[in-house]
Amino acid sequence: MLHLRVIAPADLRDPVLNVLRDEPGVAHVVVHTGAAIDPAGDEITADIAREAANDVVERLKSLDVQHFGAITLEPLDTVLSSAAHHAEDVADGDAADAVIWDELISRTREESRLNATFLMFLCIACLLAAVGVVTDSAVTVVGAMVVGPEFGPLAALAVALVQRKLSLARRAGAALLIGFPLAMIVTAIATLGFEALGWVQLSTVSELTQVDFIFQVGPFSLVVALLAGAAGMLSLVSSKSAALVGVFISVTTVPAAGFAVVAATVGDWAVAGNSVLQLAVNLVGITAAGVLVLAVYRRTRARRAVTGG
To answer: How many CB atoms lie within 10 A of CB 139?
Structure first.
């Protein structure tokens, strides 16, 4: 269940209530007349079955509630109510398969923001990957995979392509196109410093045995990227965040960037090129899989709307 709060001017009170009354997946409708101060109006709350939330939000938006007031949603972990259980039973569809597009756009927009936190995480992840390469440590490389924040912009790019949100696409593209080069430059400076201090004795990276999978590009590189991208988007849509950890460990995006930097500093340009290719394959594959998953959800919803469930 989700908790809906609507702030709306008094003249929209009845239209908003009509939207909530017409949806069988809604329970616990409460009206606080004149409770809102800024913006002025009524506060209307309700609990909604997740599978009904997208339709309710779309109908509220058609009333321009978001312009004159506000619409907020938050998940409810525990609801003890026969009315709520009935609302979930009669709502069309299944909660795990429900896509709330505004929620997804909001979440991916936040995760794709190019800010100091995003850049620091990406730099740290690339540095960890570089350390994993120079020490031939698969464990350290896996740590870099988990720390890397790049899935957020990739998911946002997929959502932007499906929903045709140009502003979101620009935001996600900026995070990737600025973030990765900057993180690789920082990693290159650090790696050259390690080499100057004598901590790195590598003359080539092609002889590494524990982390050589990073630059070995093949058909399964794309297969893994597609599967990871699909799993990641499914986890976002269904709010099952635990699956994202598996996605982070599966794909070699940040490790490929770190490997490319280390290979370049020792003059192993062939391996550096393969690492960059691995990075590109993973970025494209994850985005393409996210678009495909969202397109399937969108088509399924449209088919249900035509057939009436």
So the answer is: 10
pLDDT confidence tier of residue 208, bands split at 50, 70 and 90: confident
pLDDT at residue 243 above 70? no
Q: What mean pLDDT is predicted for residues 227-238?
A: 88
Same domain? 88 vs 177 = no
User: DSSP letters of 166-195?
Assistant: HHHHHHHHHHHHHHHHHHHHHHHHHHHHHH
Range of 7's domain?
A: 2-94
Nearest to 8 by CA among 65, 72, 74: 65
Pick from 266, 265, 252: which is nearest to 215 by CA? Answer: 252
What gap in Å lies between CA 261 and CA 150, rounded to an integer?
Answer: 17
Identify the residue whose tokens are 């464990």: 139
- Distance between CA 291 and CA 303 in Å, rounded? 18
- Give yes or no for a contact between 148 and 125, defined as CB atoms under 8 angstroms apart: yes
**And the tokens for 229?**
């991208």
Asked if residue 108 and residue 81 are part of one domain, the reply reads no
- 133 near 258, Cβ under 8 Å? yes
Q: What is the CATH number of the domain that holds 27?
A: 3.30.70.260
- The helix (run of H) or strand (run of E) holding residue 46 is strand 40-48
